[in-house]
Design a protein that fits this description.
Elements (H helix, E strand, L loop, with lengths): L5 H8 L45 E3 L2 E2 L15 H13 L9 E3 L11 E5 L4 E2 L2 H12 L3 E7 L1 H15 L6 E2 L22 H5 L18 E6 L5 E7 L3 H6 L5 H25 L1
Parallel strand pairs: 1-3, 1-4, 4-6, 6-9
Antiparallel strand pairs: 2-5, 7-8, 8-9
């Protein structure tokens, strides 16, 4: 599994804590009748020659899903704006060399093991095949890290648990405590780490109620699957839409400061740092 060099990793752990306040906001979003995003309107850069084979690449997982409307397309949630913006901020705010474009992979792809970090979005109705479950199991047990994001309400969490139980029959998820290092390793994060979509926020909500009844629990939860050594292999961000803070950072200044700047980018950088150093 390819990872950035030890020098890059060491520098990433001691990031210069550049405040996001005041930096130019990137593009974000394309819904509401807007055209598909133009790649040229998002930040691009050249990878330095000595890092051509030593870069971090944001790897999104394509998977099948059930449900009406977007059947089979749940994996595309917030794509590709989310991936492009987050990659740009990693390049800007850390000492990692980052691929500006990212990749999309299946869990059965032979190239999966080339990427130490993978991201899945809108997983509340994911449907993994046996080969995909086997691929995910092998990937995580061999040092890979999964971040799963944007699923809401207890019904979705029960479904996710059922899918992951087939991946790891003998591992039970544990909720991360507020003092877990992933919340403090670079940015020292406190308070309620919850990001609603910009649509929910515009309605005055911090919970995306269209996903289902919160059953009395609208709070964010960070659920982890740990290996035998106690290392976190997979992090599921329940009642959260971290990726919308990446995708939508350029649409509204208040949303940017409240969610992109305060939660989405600092937490994302913390997660990547954890994934790349454990």
């Amino acid at each position: 599994m390819k990872r950035p060099s030890i020098l890059t990793l060491a520098a990433a752990v001691t990031l210069s804590l550049i405040a996001v306040v005041g930096v130019a906001q990137f593009q974000g979003g394309r819904r509401g009748g807007r055209p598909r995003p133009d790649r040229s309107s998002y930040p691009e850069w050249e990878i330095e020659e000595e890092f051509q084979h030593d870069v971090f690449t944001f790897a999104r997982i394509q998977y099948d899903s059930w449900g009406s409307g977007r059947r089979g397309a749940s994996w595309r949630n917030d794509f590709p704006d989310c991936d492009w913006n987050f990659s740009a901020r990693l390049q800007e705010l850390t000492s990692m060399q980052v691929d500006p474009n990212g990749v999309v992979l299946r869990l059965t792809d032979d190239k999966l093991f080339d990427y130490p970090f993978i991201y899945m979005s809108n997983v509340g109705n994911m449907s993994l095949s046996e080969p995909e479950m086997e691929g995910l199991r092998r990937y995580l047990l061999n040092g890979g890290f999964l971040m799963a994001d944007d699923f809401w309400a207890p019904a979705a969490w029960r479904h996710v648990q059922a899918e992951m139980k087939q991946v790891f029959p003998n591992i039970k998820p544990r909720e991360l405590a507020a003092d877990h290092e992933i919340f403090h390793n670079v940015y020292d994060l406190h308070g309620k780490l919850q990001v609603p979509s910009i649509f929910a926020w515009r309605q005055g909500d911090t919970f995306e109620y269209w996903h289902g009844d919160p059953e009395g629990d609208p709070d964010p939860h960070f659920w982890g699957w740990f290996d035998d050594r106690g290392n976190l292999m997979a992090l599921f961000c329940h009642n959260n839409d971290i990726g919308d803070g990446w995708e939508r950072e350029g649409e509204n200044t208040e949303f940017f400061h409240t969610y992109s700047e305060r939660v989405s980018y600092p937490l994302g950088i913390n997660i990547i740092t954890y994934a790349m150093t454990h």
